[in-house]
Amino acid sequence: MTTAVLGGGLSGLSAGYYLLRRFGKPLTIYEASPRVGGWVRTENRKDRNFIFESGPRTIRPVGLPGANTLELVEELQLEVTPIRRSHVAARNRMLFAKGQLCMLPNSPKGLFGVLPPFTKPLYKAILRDLVTSSKKAKLEDESIYSFAERRFGKEIADYAISPMICGICAGDAREISVRFLMEGLFEKEQKYGGVLKGSLMARFKDKQVDSKKEGLFAQEQPKLYARALEEKWAMYGLQGGLEILPKAMRKYLGERDVSVQLSSECRNLTFSPSGVRMTLREADVPVEHVISSLPAHKLAPLVKQQHPSLSAQLLDIPYVDVLVVNMQFPGKLLKQQGFGLLVPPVEKLPILGVIFDSCCFEMGENTVLTVMMGGHWFDQWFGDRPSPKQILDLATSQVQRILQIREEPKFSRVHTLHKCIPQYTVGHKRRVEGIRNYIKTYKLPLSLCGAAYDGVGINDVILSARRQVEAMPSS
């Protein structure tokens, strides 16, 4: 089977990796830009002993998706930098709310005191879930804000759930589907009438939870995953920065006759009973099957001519723009160590959060921070398209105020990531099912993987590629 992969980000490269592993035949990956990696981008300043990441910087080794990524990392023989659960970056996560930096509880003891910005002990929110009956008619989906407010109260929705959604997808919790992040909890609540009650009942009734794991790994579990469990990793990075991963994947594929064509944008896809004709700038390329890891809004125009309804469904998945500002200051300037801080939207500040990169990883005598801005609120704060200097000045003033840093950054980078994160708004699961059902109904030789469909995290997009390759017919 001749297969083409559209997109040279992590999901597209993973699709190439799993295609090669399953079918053993050369294939081609087409990437529109002059580099692989998509939104994963590292600037490694070895001369000054620090790293800037404009995309993700850590990966969580959790569950089946985490084990799957570690199997890939192991195969590529990459050096990992573990962050154990005892590490300050794993223990300390903060909010900036009500004019102060607030430490989130990091142990069961934290549930019983009153910690700002909360006005009562968090165990009371748990009690609320136990005594709140599920009076509503059974729901197919709702916003994660509505779910949290209904079960745990407005304070939890405003100061715990909303900033967490900002950190994960730069989105508004009032619009994001509860199935995006808490599908298991939502389904337990709908089935048993409460989150805690449902969790307890499910432990006794649903014994086959791990059956899906069977058959994914040739051995019982990857060695690196076993090590992560034994050493209690909370997350990990890669030596030299996260862009090492897509670069290593490209090298691995290239050594096995997989062609990665850069600056090769696909302009159109034409489907026929014999396969797909891909229109590139230089030529038309016939293939039997296409795996698209492109953002939904980039795939939509490629299928519009033949399948306008599919194109419209793809465009129903919204995206947001995010500003990322990397800053380096000489010296150790942070008064409080941790992974970073998030800003609840209710605070109405122009930043989503700040990551303390130099707390997560060793960066010598440097303070390295990454400020995230925009997302769902991009137009509200940055609609008039400010200059990079204005963006840097705004980010710097917020950092100086929140973290009480007097200095100006010595080195900085401003990145505008246009339409970088898909938003899993209420009904997302049904939307994706509709798209995949359309492809199945019309027997299109097309598979979809990547952040638009099955999760926005690194583990999600890699596993999404694997699942789509495994679902392909073997002949």
How is this structure best described in words?
This protein has 475 residues and is an alpha/beta fold. It has a seven-stranded mixed beta sheet with strand order 7-6-15-16-17-14-18, with helices on both faces. A five-stranded parallel beta sheet has the order 9-2-1-13-19. Residues 206-214 have low confidence and may be disordered. The protein has helices spanning 10-23, 63-75, 88-91, 123-131, 144-152, 154-169, 178-192, 195-205, 223-230, 244-254, 296-303, 308-315, 357-360, 378-382, 388-403, 428-441, 458-470, and strands spanning 3-6, 28-30, 42-45, 50-53, 80-84, 93-97, 100-103, 233-238, 259-261, 266-272, 275-280, 284-287, 289-292, 319-330, 340-342, 353-356, 366-375, 411-422, 446-448. This is Protoporphyrinogen oxidase. Belongs to the protoporphyrinogen/coproporphyrinogen oxidase family. Protoporphyrinogen oxidase subfamily.
List the helices and strands and how they pair.
Blueprint: E1 3-6, H1 10-23, E2 28-30, E3 42-45, E4 50-53, H2 63-75, E5 80-84, H3 88-91, E6 93-97, E7 100-103, H4 123-131, H5 144-152, H6 154-169, H7 178-192, H8 195-205, H9 223-230, E8 233-238, H10 244-254, E9 259-261, E10 266-272, E11 275-280, E12 284-287, E13 289-292, H11 296-303, H12 308-315, E14 319-330, E15 340-342, E16 353-356, H13 357-360, E17 366-375, H14 378-382, H15 388-403, E18 411-422, H16 428-441, E19 446-448, H17 458-470
Parallel strand pairs: 1-2, 1-13, 2-9, 6-15, 13-19
Antiparallel strand pairs: 3-4, 5-8, 6-7, 10-11, 11-12, 14-17, 14-18, 15-16, 16-17
Helix pairs in contact: 1-10, 1-17, 2-17, 5-6, 7-8, 11-12
